[in-house]
Prior knowledge:
Elements (H helix, E strand, L loop, with lengths): L2 H26 L6 H7 L2 H14 L9 H21 L2 H26 L1
Helix pairs in contact: 4-5
Amino acid sequence: xxWPEFLLILGVCAxxxxxxxxxxxALFADRSLPPRVLAALRYIPVAAxxxxxxxxxxDPARLAQGWVANVLPLVALVPVAVVSLKARSLWLSIVxxxxxxxxxxxxxxxxxxxxx
Length: 116
């Protein structure tokens, strides 16, 4: 792809992204949103995070890796669900998810190594 064509596509994409992020703020800056809309907007980060997690939990390519690779993410999901429901913090859920997955992966490697 020639550079001018690439730069044109990059500029159009950047403009669309910028408009999509700034236009709602500019339009609704002086207005107050109804309580139902505000309540609905609170679910967007959780829904986005859930979509990413569920997409990785049920990955068909993981089935070829054995049962440990399939069970570990589901086991790591339990502490994340508890923290998410109690604390309602996205960042804390991410930290607990990464930590629990690492811990359970380490424990599984110890257990699988001891069995061989």
